[in-house]
From TrEMBL:
Residue ranges with Low complexity bias: 1-15
Keywords for the protein's UniProt record, in alphabetical order: Signal
Region (Disordered): 1-29
Keyword presence, Signal: yes
InterPro entries from the UniProt entry: Expansin_CellWall, RlpA-like_sf
Protein name as it appears in the record: RlpA-like double-psi beta-barrel-protein domain-containing protein-containing protein
Keyword check for Signal: yes
Organism name: Jimgerdemannia flammicorona
């Protein structure tokens, strides 16, 4: 497992960011960790998503994560180099301590 920090989080909120008009999410001042393996065994039951992202469990609102509206949504992730990647939400990140911490493939 390799770890990459995008930027240091500046604040934590009690809820996920609001969706953008296209139905995706943009997270600002995020902390990111990167896992080299695909997240095929995941809370949303989505396989083959690449790139994929696991988000803080606070983003999930449904008792059954497979039916949660966050599953399959996109998160725009911009690295320190300015490059933006859109990743599909496929899992909960149990190790994510803040709402703006993302685990990425």
């Amino acid at each position: 497992m390799s770890t990459t920090k995008a930027t240091k989080p500046t604040k934590t909120t009690a809820k996920p960011p609001k969706p953008t008009p296209g139905g995706g999410y943009t997270v600002r001042d995020a902390e990111g960790t990167r896992f080299g393996a695909a997240l095929n065994s995941n809370a949303c039951g989505i396989s083959g998503a690449d790139p994929a992202v696991a988000v803080n469990p606070a983003w999930f609102k449904s008792a059954n994560p497979n039916n949660d509206p966050i599953c399959g949504k996109t998160v725009a992730i911009t690295g320190s180099n300015g490059k933006t990647v859109n990743a599909r939400v496929v899992d909960k990140c149990g190790a994510c301590e803040s709402d703006n911490h993302l685990d990425m493939t």
